[in-house]
């Protein structure tokens, strides 16, 4: 979230301080910033090794993420806790897709990546537990468990470019930063940053010496400097603190070759004061690595030409795709596609993926011409096929498979219309059970629907008082379908209903 006064008070303050610094090497230039930061803008901290921009990794190329060297600011939502459980699995799934790294599984318990809160509200005002949890977890450190790689020699490599690209496809990430230096004072930050080379690419003679830059200061804590208790959700913005920080950073900033751009700099430098978990080093100097999925709400239901009664919201659609691990050139089937929110999300994060949507509703309820227009209007690749049909019918599934060249799909990602048939017949199988039956049937007749290693990811509704395992297909049915349960994440809808994001892997 951008601060409402960021473009007024802080920028004016920063410019006044920059006027105090000798003008050598400083100028005001306007430069646009790409959606995913160019790799040359990534810092060269000695603690994180850089890798090529492609995602082909060898077991010998590795990186142990140093403790507290990455910082994530998560995107807030109107309802606390609504998609809270999807944050970590979404990023882990995106990282796994970007790096093609089997160690970075979506399941957090088995992942080498660890998250811990960077905020700790300790003010006098009592907050409801859900709001306190939402605030304290709004920013988190990203660290590494240090688990061994496939050959037992250490964790696999995660490059800066991998992290920036993975973040750029996550709906629940606002901004991700690389921590360059930590210290007890602003002067410490400048000294440590120059020692570890965290900004050497920005300095005269460096790779990015002509890039523009700007500095912002953010203060966190239980109380404001005035000793007056402040609201927990706001950040103290002090012109005095920003002047102090800029003057202390002057020895480093004077080495920069590029000019100041307070509106749209190439390199955004942040000073964080009062973050939790920094020990005695209560000040942090960081540079922005990337942002979350751009133009996420361009696929919001209200913006679409095809309008349905119960469309899937963009955050949920993107979370499904990321947890599935959708990546370049893969194939995706949504057997209950509706207005194709999931296929829109997949096309945004992996433009070259091939998708197929099937839904039993007629064009009077779901206008398929309008769906295609929704893809074209946003400049997204159209699905290989969208047609009417019941995914229970083998002929319909054969038609879906034919649309991608008679091959099985890499992923099945869907939000089934639960509740309709159950109301008519309490003994009717659930849509997920129907899918398992279809997987078993198609495999046995030699026309596999899902590749071995492929993922099936979908939503399943459940009363909060009921064990989700009792709602899912039985273990026997799961095994017959050749599937293995991976994980489930709860998303509360209201006091009496949740939906669970569940994922399976095809094993045979």
UniProtKB/TrEMBL annotation:
Compositionally biased residues, Polar residues: 44-54
Keyword Methyltransferase: yes
Gene Ontology molecular function: methyltransferase activity; nucleic acid binding
Record region (Disordered): 42-61
Signal peptide: none
Domain (Ribosomal RNA large subunit methyltransferase K/L-like methyltransferase): residue spans on this chain: 302-354
SUPFAM superfamilies reported for this sequence: S-adenosyl-L-methionine-dependent methyltransferases
Highest taxon listed in the record's lineage: Eukaryota
Keywords: Methyltransferase, Transferase
One Gene Ontology term from the biological process aspect of the record: methylation
Gene Ontology cellular component terms for the protein in this record: cytoplasm; tRNA methyltransferase complex
InterPro entries referenced in this protein's UniProt entry, alphabetically: DNA_methylase_N6_adenine_CS, RlmKL-like_Mtase, SAM-dependent_MTases_sf
UniProt protein name: tRNA methyltransferase 11 homolog (Saccharomyces cerevisiae)
Species this protein is from: Seminavis robusta
